[in-house]
Amino acid sequence: MKKLIFTGFFILLGVFAFAQNLPSVRVVNSTGYSIYYIHISPANNDYWGSDILGEEEILENGQTLIFDLTQTLDLVNVYDILLIDEEYRTYSKMGITMTNNARIVFTIDDLEDTVE
Description:
This protein has one domain (about 25-110): Domain of unknown function DUF5300 (Immunoglobulin-like, Sandwich). Helix content is about 15%, strand content about 35%. It has one helix spanning about 1-20; strands at about 25-30, 35-40, 65-70, 80-85, 90-95, 100-105. The strands form 2 sheets. A 3-stranded mixed β-sheet has the order 3-1-6, with no helix packed on it. A 3-stranded antiparallel β-sheet has the order 2-4-5, with no helix packed on it. The termini are far apart.
């Protein structure tokens, strides 16, 4: 029994240490608009990840969101990021090479062309 508890302790310690090595990313909203949705996915993925803001959070103009990526940089380091504002306009940055503590600033220049 002690061996199982001892082994379990080291497994938990390893998971905690792994979680501490996940890279942190800062997304800065300088679009001039409130952002309601942020999606991020590895660049080689065909699907956007789930909204990292959640249902209740809004990233106001001038605010920064700090979050951890779900994989270490040695596994995945190139990502695409999509922001959606209050009018459902989209802003994107594609093929961003991430580093730990990366600071990614979105401006009105990142607004995607839309067909009216």
